[in-house]
Design a protein that fits this description.
It is a single chain. The mean pLDDT is about 95. Helix 8 packs parallel to helix 11. The strands form four sheets. A seven-stranded parallel sheet has the order 3-2-1-4-5-7-11, with helices on both faces. Strands 6-13 form a two-stranded parallel ribbon. It has eleven helices and 13 strands. The chain is of the alpha/beta class.
């Protein structure tokens, strides 16, 4: 029987997973709001659905696996809001359901470590919305739900090199600030490993081994490019958008032991230095 992944909000991370699944003869159906993006998805081997808008019943009937990447909005989780009852009716049909959340659900821990057992105490509206969405998905009886709490995502097309080259990169300094991050290829590997070894009810932190201050990442990117170190700016007086400033409201180091111990994931990019070197090598090889 063909495995069919129905992916809501088929974006950056879901497309990376698709590159693993398609060679294994999976069928992948992905939703997007954009007709232009739908063409891109089709060219990548995904069957696109413009949603909201498309009738999702045939795709839901075909799905053996669900992946939810769509972010909650002011009305809550958009997938549950529109299709929650239909998904609940089919809960026993699915072999695996994955929800992509964020490490923002843990809130601020003043640079200390968090694990999947750490209480969820979000400090931002986005984090609160994610906790509410996690809770709503987990409340569906018999749904084989797996929650993935993603750290800051980078990868092809999402690295610091363009800003460093353009001279617009900034090293914002906030004492004691550390972030965890993850390469998109490792997100895909974690999801694939979970699909191969389902454990309904599990939550997984998805990040690399090396939480680091954000200014160190920018500095290393400049070093790799052989360019001058971008100037340091004090967080307290730096001009930043509210969205950018909100990221600095939380400082924590995120443990990834569970993805390694339970799923056996061997990270391709165990730290940001390995990830940035690979990104730059790929850019230069084009």
């Amino acid at each position: 029987m063909t495995k069919t992944l129905l992916s809501f909000g088929h974006g950056y991370s879901a497309r990376a997973l698709t590159r693993i699944l398609l060679p294994q003869d999976w069928r992948v159906i992905g939703t997007t709001r954009s007709e232009d993006r739908a063409v891109t998805l089709m060219n990548e081997g995904t069957e696109p659905r413009i949603w909201p808008g498309a009738n999702m019943e045939p795709a839901l009937n075909a799905a053996t696996h669900l992946l939810i990447s769509a972010a909650p909005d002011e009305n809550g989780d958009p997938v549950l809001g529109a299709l929650g009852d239909e998904i609940a009716k089919r809960a026993g049909q699915f072999e695996w359901v994955g929800y992509l959340s964020t490490t923002g659900v843990y809130g601020d821990h003043a640079g200390d470590w968090v694990t999947e057992e750490t209480p969820l105490t979000p400090a931002t509206k986005r984090g609160i919305a994610r906790v509410n969405a996690e809770t709503a998905w987990a409340a569906i009886p018999n749904l084989p739900l797996h929650i993935f709490r993603l750290a800051g995502i980078y990868g092809p097309g999402r690295g610091p090199f363009a800003k460093v080259r353009a001279g617009t990169a900034r090293r914002i300094i906030k004492q004691g600030q550390v972030f965890s991050r993850t390469h998109v290829a490792d997100i895909a590997r974690v999801l694939a490993a979970s699909i191969a070894k389902p454990n309904p009810g599990a939550a997984y932190n998805v990040c690399d081994n090396d939480p680091a201050p954000p200014q160190d990442v920018i500095g290393y990117a400049a070093e790799l490019l052989g360019l001058a170190l971008p100037p340091a700016e004090d967080f307290e007086v730096a001009e930043m958008t509210p969205m950018a400033r909100s990221f600095y409201a939380e400082s924590k180091k995120v443990s990834n032991d569970r993805i390694k111990d339970e799923l056996g994931v061997d990270l391709l990019y165990p730290d940001y230095k390995a990830g940035l070197r690979a990104l730059l090598a790929a850019e230069l090889s084009v």
